[in-house]
Batch of 2 targets.
Target 1
Amino acid sequence: MSSTELRHTALDALHRSLGATMTDFAGWDMPLRYASEREEHVAVRTRAGLFDLSHMGEITVTGADAAALLNFALVGNIGSVGVGRARYTMICRADGGILDDLIVYRLAETEYMVVANASNAQVVLDALTERAAGFDAEVRDDRDAYALIAVQGPESPGILKSVTDADLDGLKYYAGLPGTVAGVPALIARTGYTGEDGFELFVKPEHAVALWEALTEAGAGVGLIPCGLSCRDTLRLEAGMPLYGHELTTALTPFDAGLGRVVKFEKDGDFVGREALTAAATRAGENPPRVLVGLVAEGRRVPRAGFPVVSGGRVIGEVTSGAPSPTLGRPVAMAYVDAAHAAPGTEGVGVDIRGSHEPYEVVALPFYKRQK
Amino acid sequence: MSNPQQLRYSKEHEWLSAAEDGVSTVGITEFAANALGDVVYAQLPEVGATVEAGETCGELESTKSVSDLYSPVSGEITAVNQDVVDDPSLVNSEPFEGGWLFRVRVTEEPGDLLSADEYTAQNAG
């Protein structure tokens, strides 16, 4: 992306005034961390953290056939999502390869908001537009219509309650409702990518600074701090959540990624990828190629994406994401490994870290699950 | 961020103390520590090992990356900071003090070590 100008969110000046270390993420100049990414991680696990996620790609789908279009274009049963609810789903190619993972919010009977990863937003927009042919539905690029601020962590409900009259107690996980937060109109969603309770607030870009400042003030007494993308990555890794480009790629189907449950064959009508995914489901059930597992280090050297997973001197898999886990106090990784080595507790598995084979324990995902 | 005047610096962001009885202390600068982010693992040279100026003698790993550790001078390692091995975050919290990395009996030093002002200017540029 170095050849093109980096894009800046509505909160850019604020990040700089907070001393953020910025990074190029999918063409956006985003906060990587403000001070210590470990402190930011711990804040989200134990108190609350504030994130600018305005790089995420919003696409609005409206019209009488909006539900039918999304049922055809995506692998999930989007028509069954109630108004005010959200669904984690994927968009695949005809060959079953994953184009992106998405959250779809049903805002009204005939209005949906699709939230794509920044790196794939254009791909998703193009695919939805192409797949909309013949449907009475409009696909609208709303990437510039929203800023997205997330408040995540156990203190987040209390913080948000202090700046909104919206019924948060009635707002379930994976639900979204329009409301007013700190005096500005917002779509309030109880979603996140951290493994904690939390909220994502979609607002107009011109309201982002006021909202950020109000949340900062509301959370000051309970230890809320601004958090960057670095800790977002370690938080989602501990929670066993996949990241596109790492655990999910066009070379893999949802079944290969252990996420076959998002594919709904029983829904009405045909959908893009149905035939290939039917075959992929059978293959994954009978003879899985590789399986996504968790690895926990016995030592302290950190596995990174692309490092070989080894056993008995043989390569048996590959790390897709790895980082020191602040919660476990040891490095962890997600990796695709041969099915024979995928069972938790499998002996003799290691990661080749720059030539030295470091012992790792195979565990079930996730590494961390919050106590409810 | 200020770089202590009594230290000298390598272009690779190591600092070197003035020698006492021929032995200097080496660490990485606050600038380097900030660039790395939270250091989570430090692999330091063995006591007794010979190091060469400008060559790799260990590694520092942070949440996001791993960086080679260079020795700013040639010599023999006389001590390593076990506190940093046990708690690598010292590199971030006290880069010029408790976060020192190793001590080296200097046999040769390169001619291009920087003063504090020169090093500060390098990073500004």
Note: The two ends of chain A are 41 Å apart (CA to CA).
Target 2
Amino acid sequence: MSEQLQFDEIKSQIQQHLVKSGKYDIINKQLKLQLYESGWYDEVSQLASRELQGQDGDQSMNFDVLFASVKPKAEEMVPTQVKEDIIQKLKAYLDDVIC
Amino acid sequence: MTDMEQIKPTYRNIASSLLDDMLVNIIRQQMIVAMSQQRALYNMVGDMKGGNFLIEDSGSPNKDIFGHDKQKLKTSDISKYFPCDNCGRNIAAGRLSQHMSKCLERKRR
């Protein structure tokens, strides 16, 4: 359990550094751009619409239900190339700051 | 990969974890957008219990708002012919209005 805590702490410090430097914002925007260009946003919108229409018969629209249902599929739909690219960018940043 | 290796603070693991967080936030934002669009639509059309309608995604650049293929529309325009009421000739649908304005002008003279 302490390994997890250690990991979380290191990750948190790095994230703070990323945000402060403005790099987090830049990488986040690049991620969104790549997702948009790959058509991921369109696919996820369609998926969400279908889920919402499916829900409508049984219950009123519920964010938690929608999110829980769509999240795993949406994560799966992210192109491997995009994931790799962003991971490489983050690793490059880590290389830079952690000397 | 064992559990121990997965939580080891390697560059890859940290980068991967940060990416996951970014994606979760993006997905969350998209769900909020989708829900508010749905809600706005339902507010417009009223409560249609049992109503069966599909929101056509206008994301495809090749389709117009009725879901017709734009390319096919162009060719269907050209393949249909209509007789001109003035001169009786068969004119292609796309050129009909142009022809009518010239034809009526000619007749008037």
Note: The beta strands of chain B are 81-83, 90-92.
